[in-house]
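Protein 1 of 2
SEQ + STRUCT:
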Amino acid sequence: MKIVVIGGTGLIGSKLIARLTERRHEAIAASRTTGVNTLTGQGLAEVLEGAAVVVDVSNSPSFEDKAVLDFFQASTGNLLAAEAAAGVGHHVALSVVGIERLPENGYFRAKVAQEQLIKASPIPYSIVRATQFFEFVNSIADEATHGSTVRLAPVLFQPIAANDVASVVGRTAVGAPLNGTIEIAGPRQFRFDELIRMGLRARNDPREVVADPHARYFGAELSEGALVPDSAAQLGETRFEDWLSRSTPPFPQEDPMLAEIECALHEPPPLKDNEFRVADVPPGTAMLVGEVTVFNVDGAFCATQSKCTHRGGPLSKGKLDGSTVTCPFHGAQFNVCTGAVLRGPATVPLKIHRVILEGGVGRVEVEVLI
């Protein structure tokens, strides 16, 4: 059958396309990069022609409260209308476990609104609610970082591998509509702080994880079971420990004496806290250097404070397009060479620093230029 995957080029979408194609379905990846825009309706009628099933695994480009609500309401409304016109017989949507338990979380409120639109539509549907993905460990830690400390509530946490999510969504897509909701989660429950500590330790991340019952998760204080599913949830097969071992580069096993000699002969001098190797920051990328983010803008290096002036989003994780960086949390945009705000919700410009290059090493001046 023809199955259109909205957000088909993303983390879950790309895995889903591969699985459906292996099973000889006509799986079509629909996203802005393929000429389909659910916010404007561009390309929807064309891509949905002849489709039996639509799977929506798309996500908002901004997590700011109003922006994310506007995205899911407009995108889902346009998509459902286009599906009705095309005669689509099954709408499948990926959602999140526990969204009704955390009304303080703007993203969760937006997902509730999306689910309400789907249930009110005449199109038969299936909603798959998943817990957080293993792949989000670093971004969760970044959001909860204050200085060198990661503060997390020690509540129950049951994340799942993205591969297992794609597997369940794929099975749901080729099955009969549920006209209801299922929940999926990983095979084991952890304490939130415990799992993030394991993930950082596996990557030699020096940040200290602290259990704080009042620590907020994207703006919401967590109760014991806020993020875990009920007892009827389907469980994925992949254990977090196994996923970590596959996704983390192995430490080389070698003679320590030989390693020491090799390092002495070939390793360059150690870098200072405010230095970086130019080769480690190719054009179009960014690197966190101490408390500063360094950007390579088409071969020229610019540096700003490390966190967004709106809600402290890690700019080193944001998308860099020319001299414009987009905060990964709420979509604020800045010029990384001048610090100027290009798009809200941020209103305060970034502090910028001078970068000096000497050979293959760059040095960030501590003094703020602006």
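Protein 2 of 2
SEQ + STRUCT:
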Amino acid sequence: MKNSVTARSCLHGSFLALALLAVSATPPTAFAGIKCWTNKEGVRECGDRLPPEYAQKGHEQISESGIRVTVVEAARSAEELEEAKRLAAVKAEQARIARIRAAEQLADDQVLLRTFTTEEDLLLARDGKLAVIESRIKLAQNRVAKMETNLEQLTSQAAQQERSGRSVAKNLQERIAKVRRRIDSHLTYIDDRRDDQDGIRKQFDADLQRLRALKSGDVQPGEVVAEETPPEASPQAGLE
């Protein structure tokens, strides 16, 4: 039998049939199947042996009955191998991050379930934290009010000195500047504590929704939900 049988366009099936017919007389133990490949001109060829120059180009193996049994992919280039390596590394890193996230979620869920038996327990804890911060804010506001009164007195003294034709005393200027800095510092402190309260509300709203989902069985401990309901949509948002 010839080493290869050229199969072009619509004649390919006939040549393949002839090739199979030719090898049918070969003892079963000697038959290795028909191999088909695409030559340099883009024409499909078939034969009992794969030419060495096409060994890296990929081919198909046809059984004695004419059924395709194997597809050998073409050897990949260095660039393709490098890209495959990069994609594999990315996939492995994503899997690692997913495992870590699941472990962290499980730990958070266990703490949540141990800490809060009911939704009311969670809301009470939230309100307690907010109340502690609110008391600090009130204290800072009282101090600001006193400092503002002091500042009014100092600026009044400075105005009197100016009206009398004198320059404002240096020590008075320093006292005024110091009081203003302290007022600014306390106002910044108050703003920061308000931000803390907002963060607590958002965190507890998220915890509330997670607790509900765990209690209802909608999610299992450690299950990572791709997209949680935004805290603003919480039915308890109006309880603050």
